[in-house]
């Protein structure tokens, strides 16, 4: 018969509708039947009861009932934007990754987040911030999943569930929602003193950024780059905001939490809408790929340590500009799935045990968060490079694959996808030597120093930054109920610096303990201070 007109006016549908569920001018059921009414359920007479046969009522209600997916187990609250990364060509001597080539433009999607609060929590809490970037390169997707603090709480990923259990709200009362002012957090960091370095960053102004646009980002782990000749280097990635690094002061953060809990996401979206596109430079610190994987005595596989920028300057390798807001929060910000295993030729991982655990964790959580193994087919996750993966079927499968032989080699499908050698931009794992020795559950001795860099951070601060740090520890610890936990944390502070310990102890009305370890004086690192440079004497 005659086809129905696509629209009441008979206009044709858009040639390539962007969303197959919003085509045509008529409201329909999900199976495409045009609806005459969506405001009244089907009843036995105007006063009911409602009839079980009302499929439209049941479909509408069932779909609504299943609208929510689980929020991320960490980093649940996020805000994101699209943009472009342009390579400077300066990384080419150390990496042959195509996206670093001079003038090469790559589409990106960046999601910023808090770590601890739930999806509906406030933005300006004291917390670490996530800075996750998806580069849709021609050679496959590369994800750089970093934070705004250059070190992490733990050295081995097997402790990640523990630190998060300690830092999330208490299981009994589900408080506090999003801050580190509670017993289990301070219990953990005072018992696992490797966390003290990350914690002092949280207690500093870095824990309350002014804006996502004025936040640094760090890959945290050491990564391995390979150049065109096959030579490898170890690197740490840094994002430097073009607007500079700025934080809120505590009182501002508290006011904003009440007045505008969406402050950071509003700021990001408004800036982009107004054409004030936020920008960051991507930079690398480059280290020789020596067998010990150390630099200047610093273990590069220990994510609780940084390498001061005076010792290894950050070299700019490209620029990121965010210039497009998301149009559907769920489809983009919520459904995006980052993963450190998304690598491209020229960029590889190292044996950092924290990084190694992450390689497992993200896929595993996304299988349940995004409902099965096909989440890379979701529009926001789709690579911009061609995909021919021989993965088949499963929940959420959108593709209708042809052929009968999804295995390789095969002699059935009249042509099997090729393997790519290095000349075809195939991903070649760096053939680095792995450690020899017995299997063991232990850390290297270099992981034992938990305080020297926390002390260096403290000594690098200006007086006003030190005041903020003292106030932050005092406020957060004053919320702790258990006296022994406060005392144990004060001992950690004594092992960082006696003045810091004394000031916080005074604020808490407790005696200041003596350090139990010898204080190691590393030279102050001016780059760590947001105020920067020489601070005039009082
Ligand atoms: C998100 C695990 C360490 C940065 C997540 C998620 C998990 C996770 C399960 C949720 C992912 C999702 O639902 O899609 C872990 C484990 C770690 C670890 C097991 C240690 C072994 C780190 C570190 C960083 C980091 C060291 C920073 C360098 C992030 C970011 C997100 C995230 C930015 C949010 C990604 C997004 O915006 O969707 N992590 N994480 N994580 N993690 Fe980690």
From TrEMBL:
Keyword Oxidoreductase: yes
UniProt region (Disordered), positions on chain: 30-50
GO molecular function: catalase activity
Residue ranges of every copy of the Catalase core domain listed in the record: 28-416
Cofactor: heme
Top-level taxon of origin: Bacteria
Protein role: Decomposes hydrogen peroxide into water and oxygen; serves to protect cells from the toxic effects of hydrogen peroxide.
Protein name listed in UniProt: Catalase
Boundaries of the shown chain within the full protein: 64 to 601 of 769
